[in-house]
Amino acid sequence: MTDGLEADVEGTDEIAERRNDLAARVRAHAGEIARELAVLQGGDYGQETFDTDGGSWTLKYEAGDVQYLRFDPKSGSETYVVSSKQPPEPEPLETAMDDYGAFVAAYNEYVRSFDGILEDVPDEFPTVESTAELVAERDRIVERIREVGNAMAAQLHRYDGDYGTYATTVSGSRWELKWDGDVASYLRVGGSDGIYLLSQYGPPPAPEVRRLADDVPAFVDDFNDHVDDLEADLERVSFDGR
Hints:
Layout lengths: L12 H29 L3 E8 L2 E8 L2 E9 L5 E4 L7 H23 L19 H29 L2 E8 L2 E8 L2 E7 L5 E4 L7 H8 L2 H15 L12
Antiparallel strand pairs: 1-2, 2-3, 3-4, 5-6, 6-7, 7-8
Helix pairs in contact: 3-4
């Protein structure tokens, strides 16, 4: 009854070693394909599927390395030839490797399909118009608005404290000047979602400056009327040019 316990047990170390060696070589070789695909596609990650007579191969890559290489034969179960988990069983690996050469050939054909694709693409383009003159004029106008905004801020600081806001309506839009000391923090037109003619972040778009600049004198006039109403000893402010 103990004869079976005395029988020799066949070792699998040699098979596992050969399997692991083959899987490592496939990973290295498929890694070359992954890097080439990443370069071709212009991204750090992606996947491509290649069809062969024996089935289909899907290569997924990330950061130029293989995430997995999956073989889905026309008959039988799919096999992850390369994966982040354990290597495949020897028999499915052998089946997949019988078709591996066809997979590489399909990849090579895929790359060759792009030959000449950029030959007729023009590499000369129209001259780009400079915005330098427009920007310089925009900045000149904004700087003039900033000067008048700071002048208002200085008067408001003298009369109404270290910081605050002054608001009025011009041409149906709300104009709001916020001051901090003698400096205008911002001048906003149109409420909380409006255009900042003055801000700490940068100048507004030139079309908005053009649209709103004509209303700056009216804003200044309203401010001066406000000063007159206060009957305080504050200096009037003028805006005499744009």
